[in-house]
């Protein structure tokens, strides 16, 4: 008769497996981030923009140019430049911005919360509307409702973001006056709330400024809805695809044969198994909103990381460009890893 291992042995094995999984997770994140650092660094060196000229101007003498080049460390071998770049990034130093005259890390801490706020509201809109639409389309496959939802999804893939944003401003702001105009707040509210978190909605509530809170929502709802429409189209399409696969399974047919209500069959039996892949879809969609909001921020004059990145590109501000790209990539990695963790939590087979 085989003896079961002692509880202490079982506990040590579990701790060992947990520690190995944690170390593997940290190593994966570190290597991915290192690869991202390498890509951003070498892209910055291949782009035909001279960062020295952006600092000293095209009328500077050769001596001034060489002195600035040496001060920026561009006279060193490429491997030394990369080493210094990695050390600087790991210590939180992303360089100085030519456009603003401030540290890039400080600029990003100012501009990124605006993008985070808009993308978060956008993904909430996309999930709250997109998931039910996908489920309804799959449960009524081939019907007129299914066709309408598929057309809405197709429009979300086809429409240019800047065009939809301009049309939204022309109709809902300039014509109907239902929403606020460009920017995060009306000009007379600007600067009245201390930026504790950088998120205007939260900061205004913390300060007890309800008028500013509603004014911020008034300005936020249109750009967030435009972003949410694009994520809605993607989420609805993927939800429909996942649900169609589940509705053709034998366990769903068995549930229907047992006489269970259709609502229970769809939302409990067919929808539960697709929660895991939906987590990945929603995570990728959220990361896409954070990195792809450049056009929306430009159209709505939204002071976010996308607008900051566009201004940096126009001014040949390579420190700001590389720093912004690096932060967006790091956020993408973080969201992807969080999705993996949630995947393992929801699906015991993946543990």
TrEMBL record:
<dbReference type="Pfam" id="PF00528">
    <property type="entry name" value="BPD_transp_1"/>
</dbReference>
<dbReference type="InterPro" id="IPR045621">
    <property type="entry name" value="BPD_transp_1_N"/>
</dbReference>
<dbReference type="Pfam" id="PF19300">
    <property type="entry name" value="BPD_transp_1_N"/>
</dbReference>
<feature type="transmembrane region" description="Helical">
    <location>
        <begin position="118"/>
        <end position="139"/>
    </location>
</feature>
<feature type="transmembrane region" description="Helical">
    <location>
        <begin position="21"/>
        <end position="43"/>
    </location>
</feature>
<keyword id="KW-1003">Cell membrane</keyword>
<comment type="similarity">
    <text>Belongs to the binding-protein-dependent transport system permease family.</text>
</comment>
<feature type="transmembrane region" description="Helical">
    <location>
        <begin position="212"/>
        <end position="236"/>
    </location>
</feature>
<keyword id="KW-0812">Transmembrane</keyword>
<keyword id="KW-0472">Membrane</keyword>
<feature type="transmembrane region" description="Helical">
    <location>
        <begin position="316"/>
        <end position="335"/>
    </location>
</feature>
<dbReference type="InterPro" id="IPR000515">
    <property type="entry name" value="MetI-like"/>
</dbReference>
<dbReference type="InterPro" id="IPR035906">
    <property type="entry name" value="MetI-like_sf"/>
</dbReference>
<keyword id="KW-1133">Transmembrane helix</keyword>
<keyword id="KW-0813">Transport</keyword>
<feature type="transmembrane region" description="Helical">
    <location>
        <begin position="151"/>
        <end position="174"/>
    </location>
</feature>
<feature type="domain" description="ABC transmembrane type-1">
    <location>
        <begin position="112"/>
        <end position="343"/>
    </location>
</feature>
<protein>
    <submittedName>
        <fullName>ABC transporter permease</fullName>
    </submittedName>
</protein>
<feature type="transmembrane region" description="Helical">
    <location>
        <begin position="276"/>
        <end position="296"/>
    </location>
</feature>
């Amino acid at each position: 008769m085989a003896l079961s291992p002692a509880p202490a042995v079982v506990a040590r094995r579990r701790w060992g497996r947990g520690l190995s999984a944690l170390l593997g997770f940290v190593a994966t994140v570190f290597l991915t981030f290192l690869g991202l650092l390498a890509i951003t660094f070498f892209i910055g060196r291949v782009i035909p923009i001279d960062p020295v000229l952006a600092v000293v101007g095209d009328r500077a003498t050769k001596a001034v140019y060489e002195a600035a080049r040496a001060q920026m460390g561009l006279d060193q071998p490429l491997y030394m430049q990369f080493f210094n770049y990695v050390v600087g990034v790991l210590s939180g130093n992303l360089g100085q911005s030519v456009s603003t005259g401030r540290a890039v890390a400080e600029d990003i801490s100012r501009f990124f919360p605006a993008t985070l706020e808009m993308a978060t509201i956008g993904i909430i809109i996309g999930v709250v509307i997109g998931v039910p639409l996908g489920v309804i389309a799959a449960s009524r496959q081939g019907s007129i409702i299914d066709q309408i939802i598929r057309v809405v999804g197709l429009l979300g893939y086809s429409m240019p973001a800047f065009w939809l944003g301009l049309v939204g401003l022309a109709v809902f702001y300039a014509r109907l006056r239902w929403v606020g105009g460009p920017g995060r707040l009306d000009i007379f509210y600007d600067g009245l709330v201390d930026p504790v978190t950088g998120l205007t909605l939260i900061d205004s509530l913390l300060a007890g400024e309800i008028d500013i809170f509603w004014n911020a929502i008034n300005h936020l709802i249109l750009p967030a809805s435009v972003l949410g429409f694009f994520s809605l189209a993607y989420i609805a399409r993927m939800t429909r695809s996942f649900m169609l696969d589940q509705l053709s399974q034998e366990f769903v047919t068995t549930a229907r044969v047992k006489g269970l209500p259709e609502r229970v069959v769809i939302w409990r039996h067919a929808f539960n198994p697709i929660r895991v892949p939906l987590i990945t879809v929603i995570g990728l969609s959220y990361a896409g909103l954070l990195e792809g909001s450049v056009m929306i921020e430009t159209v709505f004059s939204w002071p976010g990381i996308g607008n900051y990145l566009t201004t940096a590109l126009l001014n040949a501000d390579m420190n700001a460009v590389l720093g912004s790209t690096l932060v967006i990539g790091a956020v993408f990695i973080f969201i992807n890893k969080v999705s993996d963790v949630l995947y393992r939590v929801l699906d015991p087979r993946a543990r």
